[in-house]
Design a protein that fits this description.
CATH topology of the largest domain: FAD/NAD(P)-binding domain
CATH architecture of the largest domain: 3-Layer(bba) Sandwich
Structural class: alpha+beta
Radius of gyration: 24 Å
Shape: elongated
Number of domains: 2
CATH superfamily of the largest domain: FAD/NAD(P)-binding domain
CATH class of the largest domain: Alpha Beta
Distance between the termini: 21 Å
Number of strands: 21
Largest sheet: 7 strands, mixed
Bound molecules: dihydroflavine-adenine dinucleotide
Number of helices: 14
């Protein structure tokens, strides 16, 4: 039976980075993946240009039952470390917005870079390989649809449940649980929200309309754009807030994020004869005006309306509060929230506290980044930490 120092399950972002770090240390490394291609999520990420990190990465941009867990790894493998790697491979990149770094060209450059680094570190990658069983006696034994292999160290890097059609499975959770590790709060995150029929009757006709908003859930707020969909709401502001949303909690949207509550009063003073609908169309797309403005008021000259009525109208649009019907689920979720409980892992090495040689990295852990390159940074950092010691 073939024996390796390190077997990595999953040839995604975290698994490839762990393999590179271990291979560079002279470890004999095998990466197994059931997909026909390595790094499939990297390829489709960031609209095909891969938002590979975020300059403003800090532990506060991650959700976890233990918000301190990610600190050590993020401090030891930083966005600058990844940028240095990207630069060494001559990959052009730019900052799009809010510290988000994207490739100038295709995301494939990142996968090509990771595979070149794997080759340089003499890592073996075996694709189209189904994993059937993982056991441990004095070493790990990994049974697959081909010959089994053994390993001194096993790194779980098979990600979470989001986008099953890209090959996502819960195998990391199953293996972790079999070795006694606990699982925490697994749920779709960075996911579009669906609306109940009461709201949908108003918003369905707005599918495709985008608007800058402030989204609030509890004490968390994001100021970004939102997109109406046929079934509910999406866009960056909604994806961000969805990670914080729990069943039956309300979400509040400020649909006029850039406008003060008195905005219509100021406009009324300047143009009292203008129809309310006309002035509102200066604040939001006219399709939104038609959907949100009471029909009885739309044609009224603003001069006929009291300041209080105008204030109330704007105030209502700045505090649109609703309880989502649900989410679009793992089929549309950019990541999986929750995962392997970090209480059972070392934050320095990602090694299981009670199972020497077992490591877990990337999205499989209960560490979930905001939208904007944070999830890849976590994958690189956690993969790097495990690969540096395994
Ligand atoms: P990842 O999912 O990348 O890799 C897991 C690997 O394990 C896969 O290769 C899979 O085939 C393999 N695997 C799974 N089950 C297996 C099994 N049973 N047997 C064998 N192999 C198995 N993040 C970001 O920071 N910037 C961005 O631009 C984007 N964009 C983006 C777009 C879309 C559409 C999605 C769905 C996600 C993103 N993300 C993102 C999130 C990011 O892709 C994600 O957080 C990382 O890929 C996680 O890396 P991992 O290596 O942990 O898992």
């Amino acid at each position: 039976m073939q024996h390796y120092d390190v077997v990595v399950l999953g040839a995604g972002a975290a698994g490839l980075m762990a393999a590179i770090a271990a291979g560079r240390r002279g470890r004999r490394v095998l990466v197994l993946d059931h997909a026909s291609e390595a790094g499939r999520k990297i390829l489709i990420s960031g609209g095909g240009r891969c938002n590979f990190t975020n300059l403003h990465t800090s532990p506060s941009c991650f959700l976890s039952a233990n918000p301190h867990f990610c600190k050590s790894a993020l401090a030891r493998f930083t966005p600058q470390d990844f940028i240095a790697l990207v630069d060494r491979h001559g990959i052009g990149w730019h900052e799009k917005t809010l510290g988000q770094l994207f490739c100038d060209g295709s995301a494939r450059a990142i996968v090509t870079m990771l595979l070149a680094e794997c080759a340089a570190a003499e890592v073996t990658i075996s694709l189209n390989r189904a994993i059937t069983e993982v056991t441990r006696s004095d070493r790990f034994r990994i049974d697959t649809d081909r010959a089994p292999v053994t390993a001194d160290a096993l790194i779980l890097a098979t990600g979470g449940l989001s986008i099953p059609k890209l090959g996502a499975t819960g195998i990391a959770y199953d293996i972790a649980a079999r070795f006694g590790l606990r699982l925490a709060g697994i749920r779709p995150a960075l996911v579009p929200l669906t609306l109940a029929p009461a709201e949908l009757t108003r918003t369905q006709c707005l599918a495709g309309v985008s608007q800058p908003v402030v989204a609030l859930c509890g004490r968390t707020r994001f100021r970004e754009s939102m997109l109406f969909t046929h079934r509910g709401l999406s866009g960056p502001a909604i994806l961000q807030i969805s990670s914080f949303w729990q069943d039956s909690t309300p979400i509040t949207l400020d649909l006029l994020a850039d406008q003060p509550t008195a905005t219509l009063i100021t406009r009324k003073r300047a143009r009292p004869k203008a129809a309310l609908r006309t002035l509102m169309a200066e604040l939001m797309p006219s399709r939104m005006v038609e959907a949100f403005l009471p029909t009885s008021l739309a044609a009224s000259p603003v001069g006929n309306l009291t300041d209080q009525a105008l204030t109330d109208l704007i105030a209502a649009l700045k505090t649109w509060c609703f309880i989502p019907a649900g989410t679009e689920g793992y089929a549309k979720a950019e990541v999986t929230g929750g995962g392997i409980d970090t209480a059972d892992l070392s934050s320095q090495t990602m090694q299981a506290r009670h199972v020497p040689g077992l490591y877990a990295v990337g999205e499989a852990l209960d560490v979930t980044g905001w939208l904007g390159g944070y999830n890849f940074q976590w994958a690189w950092a956690s993969g790097w930490c495990a690969g540096s010691v395994a």
